[in-house]
Amino acid sequence: MSFTSRIASVLALTALAACDLPPPTTVPNYTVKVNQNAQGQWVAVPPDCLDWTQNTASDFDNMPMPQFGCATARNLAMMVDHPHDLLQGRPTELARGTVAAASINSYDSNQTRGLIDPFTPNTSGIAVTTAPSASSGGAGSGSGSGSSSGSGH
Question: Which domain holds residue 55?
């Protein structure tokens, strides 16, 4: 690197140091605090959100606006039924395996209800689905090959 290019680099860095750059965007803490009140009940305390009327973010640091996320945290704190669940979840209870097994069996045998097709007019009053039913000749319905009664062979 030549002497003139070194001087040019030093002058460029000195000029950049004299620039008044905005401070970096602060990232606020929007955690929901869970406390017990005087009666011993758990209460979720929503965070305080920043004011949207002031632009407190720097446009040069590629960070999200500091207001983003606060409304989600406030809504969670306002609608949670049991605030202690935010600290520690409840233990799972025993579930009925027959319900889970029945849904898996219907999926495996291609007997799911399917989605309603909104573009097909339904004039019959019967739910129109996109999945084949068990009697429609789809996969797993048993039609196609095999013996049929009354064929005489």
Answer: 19-86
